[in-house]
Amino acid sequence: MLLLLCCALPLLLGGLLLAGRALPEPHRDRVTTTAARLAPFAALPALILPVAARGGPEQSAVEVPGLLLGTSLILDETSRPLVVLTALLHAAALATIAWRPAPGPRDRSLPMPVLSAFLLLCLGGTLGVFLAADLVTFYVAFAVMSFAAAGLVIHHLDRAAVRATRVYLVLSVLSETALLAAVLMVGAAGGLRLAESPAAVVGSDHTGLILALLGFGLGIKAGVVPLHLWLPLAHPAAPPAASAVLSGALVTAGLLGFLRFSPEVAQPGAGAALMVVAAAGGLFAVAVGVLQTDPKVVLAYSTVSQMGLVTAVAAVAVVEPSLAGKVTAAVVVYAVHHGLVKGALFLAVPLLSAGGSRLVRGAVAAGTLLAGLSLVGAPLTTGWAAKYATKDAVAADAPALESVLPFFALGSALLMVRLVRVLPAAGARNARNPGAGPLGAWAVIVLGGAAVPWWMAASSPEVSTPGFDAAAVGEGLWPPAVAAVLSVVAILVGRRISPPAVPAGDLVVPAESAVAQATDATDRGLRTLGRAADSAAEAWRQGWSRAAAAARALGQRADSGLEDWIRSGAVLLALLAAGSLLVLIGSGGGGG
Question: What's phi and psi for 61, nearest 5 deg?
Answer without folding.
Answer: -140, 155
